[in-house]
Specification:
Length: 467
């Protein structure tokens, strides 16, 4: 068992007296979102195509795959956007890209012997529904022609409701999409104008209704807090209006303002951005309203109806976290297609070339367009499991997890010592090697996970704030 004595004492004797401002000043740090561990900035160029091909060839043919397909195009730029996308005015680059994508799928499948089952398929972006109805069908025909997609596979697509025709909605139904994620963010006109994303409730409602009619049964709505001019009243009004769409899931993302990485975010008036305390208040108020409306709060930023598979997975301890956020996806091998897409295999992570020219050159030369990656060590796997459990369940049993990996829990000695301050502040408890994040600690779970991150350098500028 880990020696935890020294973290049980209190630096501050009454955590209830500590203000949010004080907590934010100490725990709202620039830390990763932990959609993977190790996180993508630690991937190395030494992991290239040859390593990936080797890993693919070693995969157990009986184990189903999860596929992620990235479509890096949008019709117009939301100034807050942190995604890997490009604005296009013409369809020609999108059509040309689909050819490349299908070639990449073919090249990857050639690296296996025989056909593979697929249990999860996610189209993300950018805006995948920028593909015409005919091209969506072409993409799915190619994927189904290459892989054996399970009849009950989870097939999800990210949608910008402002740019979706009823033709495309019908195509999504025909190709078997059963879950759609609709970007909405905030309905307040002042906020929408300040981020260059004007979108009415009515157009969102219209698409939601059409999707359900087309057989896309499960809907997720993306909301954001921390945007310019955003107010708690505006957010709560947005949530109340969104409840009329009866989504199965809601994501509540904190705006990640990283203008040093995403230069277009400089178009946002920083003076209009809420400060840390206002952001925190927005987050907590929105989370409370969603729970009052009957949603289960999952991890950091997802909410799901109690009978939704995500909430069921939380209860049954089958929840996972990957590059799409919280997921029911249990596949041990996840292949990524398209520029910047990340794949995760039991052996490690790979990321495709981010820039379209490099991606194109590789695919046209018949190469898998891997730019960098990371071969996992046993130590990485152990720490990854700890961080995933904390992010998913806000709790981890270090003794049980170490035993599962054949290691001594002493390996976490320093990390547990590093929890002394959050323990004293009432953010976590450590008892018998079990770490539990308290409701007050939940908004800071990323900062708590960072204590278990062996790669984290004090690189303050890389990530967005924790809250
Ligand atoms: C790929 S987009 C969703 C699909 C579609 N492109 C759209 O915007 O409607 C994924 C979601 O990421 C969130 N997002 C984008 N940029 C973000 C940022 N800088 N910080 C936090 N969340 C962000 C938004 O909620 C957005 O809906
Ligand atoms: S938020 Fe969505 S629609 Fe807006 S630019 Fe980013 S990916 Fe495109």
């Amino acid at each position: 068992m880990i020696c935890i004595k020294s973290v049980e004492g209190g630096i501050l004797s009454n955590p209830a007296m500590i203000s949010s401002a004080d907590l934010l000043s100490r725990y709202d740090q620039r830390v990763p979102r932990y959609t993977s561990y190790p996180t993508a900035p630690h991937f190395q160029p030494r992991v290239q195509e040859a390593a990936y091909r080797g890993w693919l060839a070693e995969l157990d043919p009986g184990v189903p795959l999860s596929l992620y397909v990235h479509v890096p195009f949008c019709d117009s730029l939301c100034w807050f956007c942190g995604c890997h996308t490009k604005i296009v005015q013409r369809y020609a680059p999108v059509a040309a890209y689909l050819d490349l994508l299908l070639r990449e799928v073919e090249l990857t499948a050639d690296a296996f012997a025989g056909r593979r089952r697929v249990c999860h398929l996610h189209l993300g972006g950018g805006t995948p529904t920028i593909l015409s109805a005919a091209d969506l069908e072409r993409l799915f025909a190619a994927l189904r022609g290459t892989f054996d997609v399970d009849v009950d596979a989870d097939i999800a697509v990210e949608i910008d409701p402002r740019a979706l025709t009823h033709d495309s909605v019908a195509a999504l139904g025909r190709v078997g999409v059963n879950r759609a994620s609709l970007g909405l963010q905030d309905l307040d006109p002042r906020v929408q104008k300040a981020v260059n994303r004007v979108q009415s409730l009515e157009e969102t409602q219209d698409i939601a209704t059409a999707l359900r009619r087309a057989g896309v049964g499960s809907l997720n709505i993306d909301l954001m807090y921390g945007l310019p001019h955003q107010t708690i009243a505006g957010m709560l009004a947005t949530i109340d209006a969104v409840m009329g769409l009866a989504p199965q899931r809601v994501c509540l993302f904190g705006y990640a303002h990283v203008p040093w990485m995403k230069q277009h975010q400089r178009l946002i008036d920083e003076a209009a951005l809420p400060g840390p305390e206002d952001r925190f208040a927005q987050y907590m108020a929105a989370a409370e309203r969603l729970q009052e409306a009957g949603y289960v709060w999952i991890g950091l930023d997802h909410f799901a109806l109690p009978d939704d598979p995500l909430a069921v997975a939380l209860r049954e301890r089958r929840l996972h976290r990957n590059f799409q956020g919280y997921t029911t996806d249990e596949a041990s091998a996840r292949l990524g297609f398209g520029p910047s897409a990340i794949g995760g295999l039991p052996q490690g992570f790979v990321q495709n070339a981010t820039a379209m020219p490099a991606y194109r050159t590789a695919v046209e030369a018949g190469q898998l367009p891997i730019q960098r990656g990371l071969a996992l060590s046993d130590d990485d796997r152990l720490h990854s499991a700890v961080i995933e459990q904390l992010m998913c369940y806000l709790e981890v049993d270090l003794g049980a997890i170490s035993r599962r990996f054949g290691r001594s829990p002493d390996i976490f000695g320093d990390a547990v010592q590093g929890l002394a301050e959050p323990v004293a502040d009432g953010l976590v408890t450590v008892e018998e090697g079990i770490i539990r994040v308290s409701p007050r600690g939940r908004p800071f779970v990323r900062t708590i996970c960072a204590r278990f991150d062996r790669y984290l350098a004090p690189d303050a500028q890389r990530h967005a704030r924790a809250v």
